[in-house]
Amino acid sequence: MNAIMDRVGLTLLHKQLENICDEMAVSMMRTAYSPIFSEGLDFSTLILDREGNLVARAGLNPSMLGASLYAATWIIKEVGAENFDEGDVWIHNDPYRGGSHMPEHMMVTPIHVDGAIVAYVGNIAHMAEIGGMSPGSFAATATDIYQEGLRLPPVRLFRKGEPVQDIWRIMLSNHRTPANSWGDLHAMLGSLHVGERRLRALFAERGIEPLHEAFARIQDFAETFIRERIAELPDGVYYGEDSFDDDGISSRPYFVRLAVIVAGDELVFDYSRSDEQAVGPINAPYVVTLSASLNGLLYILGRNIPVNAGLLRAIRVVAPAGTICCVKLPGACVGGQTEFQPRIMEMVMGTILGQLLPERASGASGNTSLNFLFGGTDPRTGDYYAHYHFEANGWGGRATTDGNSAQIVPHANCRNTPVEIFETRWPWIHERYGLDDDTAGPGEHRGGLGIERILEVDRGTITVSTLADRALRAPWGLFGGGEGSRTRVELQRPGDPGFRTFQEHFGLPSPSKFANVRLGPGDRVRLISPSGGGYGDPLRRDPELVADDVRERYVSRETAETSYGVVLSPDGDVDADATHTLRDALAAAATGAA
Amino acid sequence: MAWIPMDKTWHDTTVDHCDVCGNLLIRRAWAFTAPDGRELRACREDDERLFALLARYAPTIDEARQRWAEQAPVVGHDPRP
Q1: Are A566 and A480 members of one domain?
Q2: Best CA proximity match to A189, nearest among A169, A161, A167, A165
Q3: For residue A568, pLDDT beyond 90
């Protein structure tokens, strides 16, 4: 066997490819203009074989997995590989061609050796502003995709190494912050150049045909490994449901219904019974539902499995067009990636796989990206600015540990926008940014805490929008764990006695989704993100851990007693006898109630 | 059953989905006839088998859905409005 082809050699090669992707990612992070790139890390980098199949990626943002598997592959098929010349860079952002939502732009370039394509490198990145009806291009009240920004079909951004100026001019003319777009697009281009250079060196070192064979084997391994893991699961049908508060347009909830079929070494995610697609932008394109399904499964079963196109041979996702799980043109869908995907992913991890592998499941996280968008003209500079911010929330408790506090939704892996960036780039002043104490879903392993952020408009007029969820239906607990807390998006205007929700201020249909509210100096916004659900019966939580939580102010004394049955002495120590008595009483009351 | 071409003119902006799984159809489709006589277009040859599998499991899924509606789900949250 060729040295490159044994299992160890393939593992090393795959790591080498992932390292190339990582280097592409670092290049993008360090050269981008927008904080969504440089701070948020909302992008992915890809290596594809000569047929356009994903071989390796940098896993910075798992939510882009579905798009990583299809966004480049489909345009190579649509356009035809014969139309990819050396030096070409193709771009598109079309959710109806394998993209997740329109802000995410995908670039791909072929690598030619001796006149033939040997591979492709690509990347996907969330542009902070692409036009449309709301600054930040995340319109929570959009009812079709044409309101969500500039939609690009596959077009060449560079042709044979030369910029296609017509395309650049169209894009930059439709983005509210063209200077940022210019910088971010060049960060993406630089990342492609890094990948191309490294991959060319690899082909020169290893040879073209051996590498092609190795790329195929790496995909075979992914298929083999995931089939082995699936085969260990009992055959059967596993069913679950979850819902969205609303779609931003009306106040009706929308339900996702998932049946997982395990049949031998194959697994099918069947979303056929889900609600019809929503009017508002919470719908998912097919690849988002695919991402959510794969990510949920891989978090539970995927340890050490290469993530590439080989997975798709063993796993099928059925999401009929026209449902909320597979939006049909011209449906709006910008929120599918940020709200729908974590909801499904955690449904897979909790309600579905929790039935099979409870020791690997977790309660729900806050499960909303709590997208907060804003834009305006800064009176100090006269420049237009816009930003897309997502908020951290609490994660669900697990079988072995509490949920993390103040983290971005698990499907995205991104980072939030630092306070310092907020205050130096845009006319906001922070009054508070901290954990939202005493809100975690109680459990033997409690949920993590969400956050509370209070911002005040410092100058000028700022147009704000939010697209969030979990304001009505709290993150669920698992195996007796309690619910987490809910999202709140609130406003206090000068002279108001306190905060009220935007819904209360303006009579909106949704408590968490609105677009284009204009704020002025002195207006204060409060964002409260949800905490995670608990795992297991809170009466089984180690009383000393509860005492620690009270000392850290994660949990109040009152909650320690009412939820955990833990009584503390005045100096904070556990009163063992009183705790024993209270827990017996709470358990008896729960049994009686049941 | 056969692959059929789905080439479009450059100004055609319509989008086609697989009748079995919902995935997009790009340039071609696997055409087959369902047992009920419907003509279906799929994204993979294997979708004929997937279609049959879904039909075979449909009663089991409907039973599971009914159980979900009737019983408290394992997660302990109320899935209904």
Answers
A1: no
A2: A161
A3: yes
